[in-house]
């Protein structure tokens, strides 16, 4: 089973306990979780990876020295070999969830990491502080379902105190949102993305394998009422499931200040992805334009992942996350930390390094930054393409944090 194989690799990683060992691993260029073959390293045009005989640590230092010499106005540890500056960190707060979405959670469930191996509140905050000190100015809390973590309010309140952190965002399934939102806002939450894949209650339940449609709608309305603007609604579009609801979702933006974001279905371990189930951006756009031919394209920022549009006169807007048909790797500014403390430099790469183990070995900030810098330095130019990704071992999405 793909999931088990993937965990085999991750377990190997978890057994690496000491910073000494980790540093040696970095220095010897060992990349225990990378599935990159010599061929695809060359395909990516990544000369750093192709010359794997060289000493990675020495190369990393050279790389960072070079970046420093170039006087880049950003952390050399968070700048990769393609000049991408990683100022956006996503932290997964939990592997658990109160829903079981078909595209995210494998039908058979996932093996949860023992509690003691998950990042504690202090560890989450220590890492966040370090990244913010290096230039991260946006942190998104995700999961699993971040709002089921009991200390989520404390984490947000502590993050709020970090100088330099401009934006704190949460991606949630909305189940507990209506109840928690006033507290989240008080703690300092700036942005909310809420997942909703169907406007038909029975279909919602089929997709997420649980009840709760009305709670999510209540959460969306509460977010609007409390002044979040735009409230982003994430909708994973799957053929045969909800692609017939595209126009209804666009219709929602007529009166509500929502940004409905249609996400192309992506392959992860255990989610039974197949190309035929994926509805491409172009297909969605063509379909929507049949109803609203004057749909207008809106300007987006350099590292925005969504291509955004508005129907003239509508309050809200729609966006498309085109990771499969038209990736945005060139402007990627994201890093991820999983709930068990692994740094993941690419959502679609299985190369990971345990910051938790480094932290627990008593490493200094400088040690951590060396490990982070080496991982960022190994980030590939772009993902391997949807067909390769669908064959590759990775975690199930629920264990990554979207
Ligand atoms: C993994 S969830 C975690 C946060 C929260 N539980 C939620 O559902 O919003 C983060 C986002 O990833 C998206 N997602 C999960 N699996 C996906 C897949 N296979 N393809 C595209 N998006 C996916 C979800 O729709 C959600 O918007
Ligand atoms: S998408 Fe979010 S709500 Fe759905 S199973 Fe994954 S983590 Fe849970």
Automatic annotation (TrEMBL):
Protein name: Molybdenum cofactor biosynthesis protein 1
PANTHER family assigned: MOLYBDENUM COFACTOR BIOSYNTHESIS PROTEIN 1, MOLYBDOPTERIN COFACTOR SYNTHESIS PROTEIN A
Subunit structure: Isoform MOCS1A and isoform MOCS1B probably form a heterooligomer.
Species of the source: Hippocampus comes (Tiger tail seahorse)
Catalytic activity reported: GTP + AH2 + S-adenosyl-L-methionine = (8S)-3',8-cyclo-7,8-dihydroguanosine 5'-triphosphate + 5'-deoxyadenosine + L-methionine + A + H(+); (8S)-3',8-cyclo-7,8-dihydroguanosine 5'-triphosphate = cyclic pyranopterin phosphate + diphosphate
EC number(s) per entry: 4.1.99.22, 4.6.1.17
Domain Radical SAM core: 81-294
Cofactor(s) the protein needs: [4Fe-4S] cluster
